[in-house]
Amino acid sequence: MPFDLTVLTPHLDTLLAGALLTAGVCALGIAAAFALATALGVLAVGGGWAGRLARLYVDVFRNVPFVVQVFFLFYGLPEVGVYIDAFWTGVLALGLVGGAYGSDVVRSGILAIEPGVVEAAKVGGLSRPAIIRRIVLPIALRTAIRPLGSVFVNLVLSSSILSMITLDEVTGTARGVASETYRPFEVYAFLLAAYAGLTYAVSLGIDALHRRLNRHMADNGAARGAAPGAMEGTA
Amino acid sequence: MIAVEGVVKRFGAHTVLGGVSLTVAPGEVVTILGSSGSGKSTLIRCINGLETLDGGRVTVDGLDVADPRQLAQARRLSATVFQLFNLYPHMTVLRNITLAPELVLRRPKNEVEAQARALLASVGLAGKADSYPGQLSGGQRQRVGICRALAMNPRYLLLDEVTSALDPEMTAEVLAILARLATQGTTMLFVTHEVEFARRISTRIVFLDQGRLIVDLPTDQFFAADGGLAHPRIRQFLSKMAPSSTVAGAPVSEILA
Fold first, then answer.
1. Which of A216, A217, A220, A234 to mutate to test the interface with B (most CBs of B within 10 A)?
2. Which of A114, A117, A220 is nearest residue B135 as measured by Cβ atoms?
3. Are A99 and A36 in contact (CB under 8 A)?
4. Are A106 and A144 in contact (CB under 8 A)?
5. What average pLDDT does the structure give for chain B?
6. Residue A114's closest chain B neighbor by CA?
7. At B249, is the pLDDT very low, low, confident or very high (cuts 50, 70, 90)?
8. Contact A223/B at CB under 8 A
9. Which sign, positive or negative, has the C-alpha torsion B171, B172, B173, B177?
10. Locate the ABC transporter domain: which residues (chain B) (predicted)?
């Protein structure tokens, strides 16, 4: 049987709808993961109960398989009266797990900040929220944004599991089409391309963010070399 | 007035400040001398609230820096210039200067920017407003650090070894600006190793040795044979200091040209 993409034509609408749904659940999931990663990363740096709680959260969510979390949210929670539909369960699950992985990245970015820079902001009288928003996060994300991108790409890949909770995302749709047409080669070729396209879009977005966050370094290679030299006099 | 009363600071078992008392009145330029590890920088950090005290009390115009609310008020009265500049690397030079006046003092943006540009021009950096710190030399960065502090219109300027990370030429750039500030009546508490320069601009000099303030004298008496020099520890310290007359002697205009 020769490779013939035209066999997909009658199912193209279904497949594209699935891809669109995957894009939607991933976009919202990544946004949630980014917000959670940032919040947890900031909390995890601090001491006290908030810091311990944040680190505990990260440990718990990284040590449970994604599929188990998804099943728990979708099939487990209704037992206690909490109903969330498949789409929002997907967004929530991606956000929760992405937040856990991402927070470690944000945390290490924060720990890499020169303490004196934050001290300057403190002495200037800036409030704690202002320091976090205007100093700590923009500097931490300069280096953290690329590894965060890897976490987000992984979220897109993990989203295929959501077909197991009746969500008509692209993997589940493709399996349906494959069994209907008996043309798994073409169908899964489409699926490969769909995921490659989605993850490439994430990478492009991350690249743009990285450029924006590092714009002060873009036009001057010497700037990077100058900084370590200035640290030699550390008391 | 900055009043330091019997301040004790320990790092673990090590006592960095063992009961230091010191006052800085408006209009004074007080220099803190002492060898590395004598607690000079820690004293500055106790005044601007970057360290918590293990004993004693620090007040800035009556505001107790140990109390978070009073500290927030006290931080509007003083500004600090750091040894390693500590500029915000992701912000332009202009934004570095305008951030705190805008957010903390709630002054209008255009007014603060105008002041920032005037300050930059006064330290010879008029063309650098839109540069980023990483694009500047160390001396330029420290001049921005001084502008950032001055934009807060502080009553007290705290200077923590502000030239220690700079080469002699850049040191001269920065000291020239400080000399001018001193003649303009800016109140300063100045931690430095530039003894000759300190002698020229200070109204008073205090000497810290192993966390204790052993001498607090008007500048001329500090360098008098029967004053500070009568103290063996100070004589020993000053004798090891290389004279930096080239830096101290050059006039402001010459250095900035």
1. A216
2. A220
3. yes
4. yes
5. 89
6. B86
7. very low
8. yes
9. positive
10. 2-235
Residues in chain B: 257
pLDDT in tens, chain A (235 residues): 678 888 888 888 999 999 999 999 999 999 999 999 999 999 999 888 999 999 999 999 989 999 999 999 999 999 999 999 999 999 999 999 999 999 999 999 999 999 999 999 999 999 999 999 999 999 999 999 999 999 999 999 999 999 999 888 899 999 999 898 998 899 999 999 999 999 999 999 999 999 998 887 754 443 344 443 333 333 3
Residue B232 CB contacts under 8 Å (≥ 6 apart), including other chains = none
For chain A, domains (ranges, CATH) are 32-158+191-216 (1.10.3720.10)
Quick check: A123 and B84 CB within 8 A?
Answer: no
- Residue range B2-244 forms a domain whose CATH class is alpha beta
Cα–Cα distance between B91 and B131 in angstroms, integer? 9
Q: How far apart are CA B32 and CA B200, in angstroms?
A: 14
The two beta strands, B187-191 and B156-160, are parallel
If phi > 0 it is left, if psi is from -120 to 50 it is alpha, else beta; for residue B208 that is beta
Are B8 and B211 spatial neighbours (Cβ–Cβ below 8 Å)? Answer: no
- Give the closest-approach CA distance of A115 to chain B in angstroms: 9
Element at B214 (helix H, strand E): strand B212-218
Binary contact (A234, B164; C-beta < 8 A): no
Please answer whether residues A120 and B80 qualify as being in contact, where contact means their C-beta atoms are separated by less than 8 angstroms. yes
Say which DSSP state B91 is in. S
Strand-pairing partners, residue B11, are B14
Q: CA-CA distance, A69 to A57, in Å (whole number)?
A: 13
Residue type, A132: I
Q: Chain A: residue nearest B102 by CA?
A: A126
Tokens for B120? Answer: 């930059």
